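Open question from group meeting: does this chain pack into something compact, or does most of it stay loose? Before anyone orders reagents, we agreed to write out a predicted structure and look at it together. Recording both the input and the output here so the notebook holds the full record.
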Amino acid sequence: MQATAYTYDPESRSGQVLLDDGTPVPFDAAAFDAGGLRLLRPGQRVRIEVEGAAEALRITLVTLQTL
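Structure tokens returned:
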């Protein structure tokens, strides 16, 4: 699934992405660390992996979108 980085706090390594429909979804340090990233800037396209659905949607991985 693809999304756009919305917020990122380098101290906690957590933030939010915006799904393509505009829905914000938070991610935690574990999801950020799983992707091997060191930094994330708002506006970057990212690839995410998720578990659950709707209100229970949880991001398990955040990495940069590559072509």
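Observations to bring back to the group:
The mean pLDDT is 94.
The chain is about 10% helix and 50% strand.
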